[in-house]
Design goal:
Number of strands: 11
Helix content: 40-55%
Structural class: alpha+beta
Strand content: 5-15%
Number of helices: 11
Shape: elongated
Low-confidence stretches: 226-230, 235-256
Radius of gyration: 28 Å
Strand order of the largest sheet: 2-3-4-9
Distance between the termini: 87 Å
Number of domains: 2
Mean pLDDT: 80
Largest sheet: 4 strands, antiparallel
Length: 358
């Protein structure tokens, strides 16, 4: 009696090695395929449901990210051009991620979807991840190479809508073996498969557009009807009558010769244990003023040194929404990576209840 993978007397590892699934690329790549598909669907929906993603006034918007990336990216001019069309570019990126994820998940034009995923990952690596050092701290270069096996091998017909359609077309044409058929018949099989799978792809795309569009609309409605969760520095303190002869403080980004520096706003705008946002007058980037303890004010850049995303503030510290780096609220020091350094400190001083940037 010959031994095979169903023989209960064979050791487990021998049975696994004998299983056809262990050598079939479609089955071998199935875990990677599932991971990439779910990740890209999630990434696309996350962008569409983020109320700040398309808001050019938000430091976390796609526009702000492209403007920052253009300064260091090797394709800076192209990124700057895309930033001028940030809404269209942002929607294109989100829906492209959604299309790639669904295509790979369903096994619908898998190689084409994998090519799309590879190009998206490459564009992310050349922009938001380009300044990441060392390079392996950035995930986009890993995603770029993770797509290559699916680009080469496809889905292998495993859990594949395209493979299912091809089998039905072959049954309709009475094709049982490719070796016994002439090239015109095989070409007809592929042509019909392409047309039918294209119809399914259009249907899936329509559902994705409706779902993504509704999600984006709902996120915009929530943002417009809710109160902003953060605070910004209030206007500078107005001069008193006794000090009317002194220069009147303004919100100008340029400090006057007699002032301690650039006026940022009222110290009262920053409660103890909280933070207020402002724009760094030196670099023009987003920043935060914090009051860790009563009477102690510090300021830090809000740009994460890992990949240039804008961090958010919480009572427990600063958190990067892109890759999860955490920073100490009182010192700006990195608490957990992938960032390898802390938030740059910005020198400030408080005079007469007004915060100045030195």
């Amino acid at each position: 009696m010959s031994c095979n993978e169903s023989d209960p007397h064979l050791p487990l590892m021998e049975r696994l090695k004998a299983s056809p699934r262990m050598t079939d690329p479609g089955w071998v790549l199935l875990p990677l395929r599932a991971f990439l598909a779910v990740t890209f669907v999630y990434a696309g929906m996350l962008k569409l449901t983020d109320s700040t993603y398309l808001d050019p006034a938000s430091p976390n918007s796609v526009h702000a990210q492209m403007v920052r990336a253009a300064k260091t990216s090797p394709i800076g001019p192209l990124v700057s051009l895309s930033a001028d069309l940030s809404t269209a570019t942002g929607l294109l990126i989100a829906f492209a991620e959604l299309a790639v994820g669904l295509g790979v998940l369903l096994g619908l034009w898998t190689r084409l979807a994998a090519l799309g995923g590879l190009l998206l990952s490459l564009s992310f690596f050349l922009t938001v991840s380009w300044s990441t050092s060392p390079y392996f701290f950035g995930s986009d270069i890993v995603f770029f190479f993770a797509w290559t096996p699916l680009l080469v091998a496809g889905d292998g017909g495993v859990y594949s809508v395209t493979a299912l359609i091809r089998r039905r077309v072959r049954a309709d044409l009475g094709v049982r073996s490719d070796r016994a058929q002439r090239p015109p018949v095989l070409a007809q099989v592929e042509r019909r498969t392409f047309v039918r799978s294209g119809g399914v792809a259009l249907g899936v795309a329509g559902v994705a557009v409706l779902t993504g569009g509704f999600s984006a609309w709902a996120a915009h409605r929530r943002a417009s009807s809710s109160t902003a969760s953060g605070t910004a520095l209030g206007p500078p303190t107005a001069p008193s009558a006794a000090a009317s002869s002194a220069p009147s403080p303004t919100a100008s980004p340029t400090a006057s010769p007699t002032s301690p520096g650039t006026q940022l706003g009222l110290a009262s705008s920053v409660p103890v244990g909280q933070a207020a946002s402002f724009t760094d007058s030196n670099g023009g980037g987003p920043a935060y003023v914090v009051q860790p303890t009563k009477g102690q004010f510090k300021a830090f850049s809000a740009i994460c040194p890992h990949a240039g995303c804008t961090v958010n503030f919480s009572p427990s510290g600063f958190v990067c929404p892109c890759h999860g780096s955490q920073f100490d609220a009182a010192t700006g020091a990195v608490l957990s990576g992938p960032a390898s350094s802390g938030l740059p400190a910005i020198p400030i001083t408080v005079v007469g209840g007004t915060i100045y940037e030195a």
